[in-house]
């Protein structure tokens, strides 16, 4: 958080989709809080998740070495049904028991080194935790003659920049209540907000020139990281300030004055800037918007911490989450304290800086929140499922790498899966909150000590966990879908290759449907009726047939595009698209063909 934060990750506000309408706060509250950007979540090396077993009895013409989803430059990984969204793995499952042992062995060894005082870690599904452990001591700055207390799920850590995730969540909650819109002008909530114009650069500022006053809200994604900045005076002769040099509770007027005075960091829409100041302003905007919408503002929360308590902490019963060390001895005694930088256990950041990094929480509270993200329609969900899906998307991509920026996610790949993370660092406290939507699983890691590389801890855990989940995923796909399905002489054959479901054969009334589509000369199916991949739609048991475009399917470097272009191809029969099939109550239905199938025993 601020100059004391060593978190180098990208930040962006939830609806900061710059392709939406370019009015003041689709760019101001959207991008303005959206001020974030990742320098560096460590990129994990991708390793294959898929089984190398192949389908039997494939058509001789179907060459899996160059299948429909592989080109010379890119590989298209079709959208797969998330079976864990309705049937999460159990802790007693053999795969989970084995991977839990592997994770425990790794964390035990790593936490025994002197740079780590404690680690609290959980792997969470919508059914609850499938792995939860504490390593190390609660109060590393103390020596207890009766022996040190261990950390546990109720031990409380400073979250640092994970606070930004809660701030963004609050913004989405208010949006869903109609209290603010992304197209509202920022000045509606913060009348003093007035950044310089795009053309006002540092050479003009250093020459003593004034901004021309043109300051559209769209420029706010380029506001600097920490305002007001620290003055090093005679740099490089001035010694760089330590962690304590900039510990103070900043005032709103100080931030607004600096925002108005200093040039933007870069040209807007080049790349968003990681900005603690931006998230401070987002939190203040949330409070102001809520007050403005009320018929009696005096009865509303007056600060960020009060607003989050009303809308997030209390509804979810997050009793170990707060922004100031409480008076209650039970909570105070559960705060984890590092051996070095122990003073940071109770230094408040203040009402202005709380939205960017002032929050405390426990592993148990974060597990509760994680479950609402993984199962929004379950008990206690704060946002509708479609809003969670909207939120879990990248908004900026760093070149051709798998590093991406979300709202406020730091997105990268582990073991072939996309992981949405938010990390945080304060002296002595280091944390990461990670979601893998593909498997409806989350990983939470909280650390005290001088070791700050939680990305490596996350990668090591993910490289053990995610391949195991993929194996379980394939087992469940085979159980639900793979096999021969019949209705009299009608038959459908479903196979699984490298984790992808394929329709191998579809015969209805003696008609080979795949060949019939080919004979239509519509350009959907390759010659010889090659198997067609099933693309999940996000609804349980529902798929589209990814025919693609034969003329394009093998072209290099376009991967998923031919299949994406041909989904819902405009050809219907019996009121349904010809590329639609679905399972319901154990029955496979191809509605455009007017037939349902039972699995052949």
Automatic annotation (TrEMBL):
Name under which the protein is recorded: Beta-lactamase/transpeptidase-like protein
A UniProt-annotated Pfam family: Beta-lactamase
Family the UniProt entry places it in: Belongs to the beta-lactamase family.
Record has Secreted as a keyword: no
SUPFAM superfamilies: beta-lactamase/transpeptidase-like
Record keywords, A-Z: Membrane, Transmembrane, Transmembrane helix
Residue intervals of the Beta-lactamase-related domain: 104-455
PANTHER family: BETA-LACTAMASE-LIKE 1-RELATED, PENICILLIN-BINDING PROTEIN
Keyword ATP-binding (UniProt): no
Transmembrane stretches, start-end: 28-45
